[in-house]
Write a structure and sequence with these properties.
Four copies of one chain form a homotetramer. Chain A is α/β, with parallel strands linked by helices. Chain A has two domains: about 90 residues, Aspartate Aminotransferase, domain 1 (Alpha-Beta Complex); about 240 residues, Aspartate Aminotransferase, domain 2, CATH 3.40.640.10. Helices cover about 40% and strands about 20% of the residues of chain A. The first copy, chain A, is built from 14 helices and 13 strands. In chain A, strands 2-8-7-6-5-3-4 form a seven-stranded mixed β-sheet, sandwiched between helices. The first copy, chain A, is globular, with a radius of gyration of 20 Å. The mean pLDDT of chain A is about 95.
């Protein structure tokens, strides 16, 4: 059986396991106050070109989104996001549970549109009833988006400028950031992200780590009391050095972006393979998630040998499915998949 | 100056003031446990045809929505509403602040569509990721809607049936219920509402009272611990008998529906007056709110003598405005408005 | 039957009803943006000697406590209060429901002790685990306390100084403030309160109004976005002018303190009456609540003709009960009570 | 330098690392729906003697407490705990942040007293104001307590009986459960815990795992919708099999209790060593945490070579400190500590 269900099916990159086996017997102080975390934070600051940024390590994506957003907003503020954003749809209401509305804008291949964001913010400010409405207090974007698509550097800068014109911080969910940075043709680097965003996270869970997300607060006074807010959200790992160790490894010798590249290479092979057989994509994704429109017969046939995600019904005879690759995807698994496509 | 800004500009119906002046010096136990509240509850149960219903009195609409919805839902549930619903737009995030997502459906003249509700509920249940999504735990409708429109009895029954098929209670926001019941051509009575809804409230603030909303729980075991939940939401009035006194008066000799009728009569005069002059409506509202598309010149001219609400920009030359009447609207004020229309 | 159960059994002072009857037919804009509210705010600022204070009107005490405290605190902060404080015991968890811990200090006749407050704050700051603990973000006191007792001006100033030394605002719950100001021997005036507190409220519900509490923010930048936070807490009254009207009346010609005086006079008569018969008090209260230790036989006997509150069991043969007077207590009712004491 | 600061300074037991290295390259479905989790759950059910229990894996202790408690309680309910309970003091307000009060009872060497619990519950039920108070909806105990002490089986059964008499579930925080089970002289087994508690967790973080806590719901209908509530609390680990793998290892061949034994042996050596030198303990702890009263001179002297936790000031010349051992404490480190005691 071949598995392309998601990008978090495997464990960690071997170098992380090596480091873990090496340090497992040592003793470390708790809660991320250890030296390994310190070292990892320095590496991340350096990679981002932001020597003054705060860096924090959390365990998972929903946890990070909830903690960052609730820690930033005032009780009467909400967060603006694409209607397809992870916080809008697939976090079981984590943001609302912490007391804040997710204010949705239309999605365009998973992205928000700068002009629509500006319109929304201006309309809000001019609405004579705005004191009876949820005030936008942060803008959330994901990069890559939930549909695998990417913002250009120009788009990020425009969105960032609009947010700052309206006094609102920009937050980027980088659960799959590595795959965005490693994509062909992107002009967005880690420096671009750090330059445009007030806070963002570099996803580890999906890009080489066992678990872990590195939050970078480039605007250091954005959030006061972040430590106790991590704690009260249940997001403080006792053995915080486990997170430091993983990010320290990922940010040594450019490992993070390098291993992400494999996911892109394998995803592009899948993309081309399906295209050559005439299958259409739902989004033109340059990253590790490929959304394909399959006729139901082919889909059922493939299912016997391959696992992948159901995305949505396309029409009575067709279905959209998702194939995800990762840093750990084996080329021979993609070979086998393409072979099946040739001779289903 | 003529005022058609809203339907809560005046105080209370004179009979309420009379009752208040009569009872003001008496002593009553607190928190709605007094005899006047008991009497008022009985009158409401009788008017609804629901002898076993629980009846509670709260102070205002947003407070009632927040308290009822949060008291009913489990932490992982949200409430389904029209995107134009009051809880979706104009309660400053009260529902989210209590931890719950407002899940929006498209609005059609302010109403949700039964088929779209059914589709949404079925799609949710079949979504393989639904455990990562907010579960619909209640359906919210307003009647009249925020746009002055009304559900038919058939529509209410269909929506109610769909909710119950999916094990979800139906909640009706009746902030302006009196104006809905008094409208021409409606086939919805208080009995219909009580028959279709698991919980609803009869609005007093906008229909004759100084303040106050009567919550009717027709499905008595729907909410456990409602009293302490009213308290912790800051919604428990110390002198609860003030609420009982008002509803007791409104539900004596059919006063509630009778006084609502005036708002309808005056609103229809405004509607016809504008129509005769060729102005279009944004919605065909049979109730006390009339949404008119005015050219900006007329609007500016009227504004010198009349106050009304800005609703939204229609196009560069036109604006949608709202005229609201109430139980207290004076016919001579409408005369004067219509006069102004003739000779602006 | 004589009623001394509580101080919110009657309606409003006759002058308020007169004003209401006079203004009932007028039209006012909603949500407290009307001229009457403006006038009332000015009167309160003047009475407090704080021309720059923000003044807001809310409906009830628990609502006010919840809204003020939640609007002031950051998510990781709690509010310090006496273990007997209203927010600690009798608000059904309203503060916790909004996400904040009530951090309790011992009560001494219902009051917190300045030295214990200082010790607590210093100990917290020096605790090496304080980032894992709830940070004190506000101090709450009630004046009069829940036991009818009063702080001296010196005590208020000392507590205020300690709070400010630690960067924490002081909030005073004045549900019964009028009765505190009108007590014999107190050196606390409204000016003292305004000088010591960053925010406090002047209780209307228990002192002459139908309902209503006036929040005074003497440190005007303490709370940002208070209006939408009132709204999302369900605490925004549509017909806000009803609150303005009541406080406008109460703060005209010193009515508020003047009518409070009657409660004191009658309470002192009750106090003396019981003392003369040899009954002991649980607290030496100079205000409108008197806590008496009755033998159970006397209590049961009195109960046939008088209603009062059970407070707590004292020992097997005795019970603590509360007699409350108000601005509306009739001297002849106290006469009758004292008569019953003579000839039970 | 010797480290006795805490029991979570080391990584995982070597067998866990072996299993991780073996499975790291395999592919697993996410969120704990994999086979390893299934196997681990079965092993835990068997060890507890509860074939029908639900078992869930979460990442850390505060997260688990918050998620379990909030998922169980209704909005108007609180959780009863010792004033020294972890949820009362050291979770930065996580429980309150989720909307619930921690109702505290006195602690006796870290434990609650059954009679005081019964008194509290009965007094609450008979309080005529209980609808204005937070309703006890769950009882929380920790075993071992935060002070290293243990309940006897008789005490657990008595507390359990009282809870059930009042319709309240009993929840046991077993962050250090292994050390409780492995203590000398205890009559509490995993079966006892499962028999007495409606829900409890078996701590992995402090007893052999990298991280992870296993929640056992012995009363399976106690919590509805636990999966989405784990998600919305940010507590759902994407690679859930990492948790299954660790507990599967710990519950194979009795590893969990076996490795816990080392912590006890080493802690008892420390206890005896200090006792022999005449030092007193603050609590008579039979588990891995030893609280010692040191004169400040000795303390400062030891600090040069040993790290341990400051607990609290005892008097001007003495301080209470904590020495913690773990499954990984090396006997030679304890040798060295005892040597230092002999020749400071």
């Amino acid at each position: 059986m071949l598995h392309f269900d998601s990008d978090y099916m495997e464990g960690a990159h071997p170098r992380i396991l090596e480091a873990l086996c090496r340090d497992n017997g040592s003793q470390h102080v708790g809660y991320g106050l250890d030296g390994i975390c310190g070292e990892a934070k320095d590496r991340i600051r350096k990679a981002c070109g932001t020597p003054d940024a705060e860096v924090w390590f959390l365990v998972g994506g929903t946890q990070t989104n909830r903690t960052v957003i609730d820690s930033t907003l005032r009780p009467y503020e909400g967060v603006v996001a694409a209607e397809s954003g992870h916080i809008s749809v697939h976090e079981a209401g984590a943001i609302e549970s912490s007391g804040h509305k997710v204010i949705t804008l239309p999605q365009h291949d998973g992205k928000i549109d700068a002009a629509e964001l500006r319109d929304y913010l201006e309309t809000f400010e001019h609405d004579e009833n705005h004191d009876h409405m949820v005030k936008p207090g942060m803008t959330y974007i994901s990069h890559p988006t939930e549909f695998g698509t990417l913002y250009s550097a120009g788009e990020l800068r425009e969105i960032s400028g609009i947010c700052h014109d309206h006094g609102i911080p920009l937050y980027l969910d980088g659960a799959r950031l590595g795959y965005g940075l490693a994509a062909d043709g992107t002009d967005v680097t880690l420096h671009t992200v750090a330059e445009c965003c007030d806070v963002f996270y570099i996803g580890g869970t999906k890009v080489g780590a066992l678990f872990g997300e590195a939050v970078v607060i480039t605007h250091p006074h954005l959030i006061d009391g972040f430590f106790p807010q991590i704690k009260l959200n249940g997001a403080l790992l006792a053995k915080g050095w486990l997170l430091g160790l993983q990010f320290n490894t990922l940010f040594t010798d450019g490992l993070y972006e390098r291993i992400a590249r494999n996911a892109i290479v394998q995803a592009m092979r899948i993309k081309r393979g399906f295209a050559e057989k005439g299958y259409r994509q739902l989004f033109d994704s340059p990253t590790n998630q490929q959304f394909l429109i399959l006729d139901n017969e082919t889909m059922d046939c493939l299912r016997k040998d391959v696992s992948f995600s159901f995305w949505e019904k396309y029409d009575d005879g067709h279905t959209v499915v998702r194939f995800a690759t990762s840093w750990a995807t084996k080329p021979e698994d993609v070979d086998a998949l393409l072979q099946l496509l040739q001779h289903p």
